[in-house]
Write a structure and sequence with these properties.
The protein has 227 residues and is an alpha+beta fold. It has five helices and 14 strands. The strands form five sheets. The protein has a five-stranded antiparallel beta sheet. A three-stranded antiparallel beta sheet has the order 11-12-13. The longest helix has 16 residues, at 115-130. The relative contact order is 0.18.
Length: 227
């Protein structure tokens, strides 16, 4: 947070335009989210606070309109997921057999946690090839609305594996609270490339991750890194 003396500043303005985020180098200094201390799954509410699902379900208005996202808090990495995703459409990872040298080839996918950097590099490479939203990274990056002043991105495979640890919990809570299947049944692309023709994906139905042809049509899970 930013304070003027002992008073917290709720909004930062540049002229008449509200500033969503301020960075000092690569470090975000505004706004700073007060993340839960206990690992698990949380609702990120429109009041900009985190609640467990049981806490949220007790609120007088616990409709999905009150949700900015679902937070996964983990000691290795914490992430915000959108309230609802398009889990039926499929996207190619890139044009067929397109070997992009802007992201590294990763032989052991689980070692990659650089999803945001990968996404920006892929978006900038492919947006002039055939439209930024036609491929997985562009589809994730263009997801709206954006709740905390930074773009969504396509997670690296290491980040997807962290999220996968909490998949059943998220799925059960969302279905119990809102009545829909959050993750669906398609595999999710990561932003991690293996080589010229393949990239890493997570198949949540079989609890496996593998490198598959970039021309395959798979789903995307936009995320924002927390903390």
């Amino acid at each position: 947070m930013i304070k003027l003396g002992s008073t917290e500043i709720a909004n930062v303005m540049l002229g008449t335009t509200k500033v969503d985020a301020i960075f000092l180098g690569n470090t975000k200094v505004y706004p700073i989210l007060d993340l839960p201390a206990v690992e698990g799954v949380y609702v990120y509410h429109v009041d900009k606070k985190f609640y467990t699902f049981p806490e949220f379900q007790k609120m007088s208005n616990h409709s999905i309109s009150q949700v900015l996202g679902y937070a996964i808090i983990d000691s290795i990495g914490s992430f915000l997921l959108p309230p609802k995703i398009n889990n039926t459409s499929g996207y190619r990872w890139s044009p067929e057999n397109f070997d992009t040298f802007v992201v590294p080839d990763v032989g052991i996918g689980a070692d990659d946690f650089n999803g945001k950097e990968n996404t920006e590099a892929l978006y900038n490479t492919f947006r002039n090839v055939a439209g930024s939203s036609k491929y997985a990274a562009g589809a994730a990056r263009s997801h709206t609305p954006v709740p905390i002043g930074t773009n969504w991105y396509l997670p690296a495979i290491g980040e997807l594996l962290i999220i996968h640890k909490y998949q059943t919990e998220v799925q059960d809570y969302v279905f119990d609270t809102f009545g829909f299947n959050y993750f669906g049944y398609k595999a999710f692309w990561s932003s991690t490339q293996q080589d010229a023709t393949t990239a890493w994906l997570l198949d949540q139905s079989s609890d496996t991750y593998s490198a598959q042809p970039k021309r395959e049509l798979n789903a995307v899970l936009p995320v924002i890194k927390l903390g």
